[in-house]
Amino acid sequence: MKHWVLIVCGFFLFYGAAHAQNSLDYYLQEAMINSPVLEGYRSGNRQNELRVKSVYALYRKPKIGLQGNIVAAPVLAMEGGKTSLSFSPSNNNYWGFDTAVTDGVSYQSLVSISQPLLNSKKLGIEIDGINNQTDINNQNITLSSHDLKKLVVDAYLFAYMHQQRSDHLDGILRLLRSNKAVLERLSQQSLCKPSDISRLAIESTTIKEQQELERGLYYNSLTQLRMLCGIMDSSKVVLTVPLMHKSEFEGLTQFTHLYDLQIRSLEIQKQKMKLPYMPQLNLNASMGLNGIYGRSIYKNVGMDFGVTLSWNIFDGKQLKYHQRTVDIQEDMVGFEKRSFMVQHMNHIVQVNGDLTSCNRRIGLLENQLIEYGDLMNVYQHELAIGSRTVMEYILLLREMASLQVKLSDLMVERKQLINTYNYWNW
Asked: Which DSSP string do the residues of 154-195 spell out, in sequence order?
């Protein structure tokens, strides 16, 4: 009993997984997970988290270091008529560095510490810049995800269009096989010519060739879709009907938020330009060995401490010129934002007009297809009684098949237009 339960559960799990791979949601989900662009921005955010810690340590944490030196400065001393190397000659009759400066041999082994002070404002500016970069990355993730969604939906619809064409051709083949059986019965009754059956067979072969072409195009477009989504798979699946709904027009857009963040980044850049012109105050201290005489070197262990101040007062108004350059960049970003808003509204108006025209064409083709269906029923009846030639029936079948494919393509085009409209109306 347990084995049957496991088999049934496994079947439903397999069926659910296979069915999920046919849906648009599956490809969208995989594209978001496998996109290197999105992962790049997410990686940038993780790096920014470490940068915050690094900047905090730079402006708040002390720096501790070790320093060790042994410096020997021997001289050529002339004493008692002899010349020899000496570190501490008894008189000034020698060649070499001044011993009053070098002391012969000096020893140094120190532990030093430097604590930055009064850096709260600098730290705040640096962290604001990193946080703003994180906000830009998040907005780029949002925009790139939106772009990727449109690309995946368009690729899915393109593959689905070729699948629909193949299905329509398969329906025509079934209709031809049905009529071929009718003609074979009429041929037995000498009510139709054997050549009529041959014409149907030739037409079936032609449609099969077209169907193979569409199947090849479908598989190629499906492969392109999988490449876009980062899916490693070569199986042939039947795509489900994608549901597309036109979003309500709100008049607002999320595209322009990136421009606002760029302006914010430039403002922070102007603040960071002031950092070199702020006073830098450090508290310094060191402890260890610092001496010159070897025998009493142990007595030269001690410590020192102090405060250092550095302040850039004037450098030829470079800060002012740099800030003006950033102001020009801000004006350019504002101009690009206003230009995009104009293009954005024009895109919405254009796509909305195309969508209205597409709906009208679909309505006309649907009515025309209904008329063709009625006419096809009449032709099939006349063909069955021998009052209609096979060639006339084939011509009507070709016209009807062409109309069905055209209507199917228009239905897919409407979904593509809805996808484009929803892309801009965001």
From this structure: HHHHHHHHHHHHHHHHHHHHHHHHHHHHHHHHHHHTTSS-HH
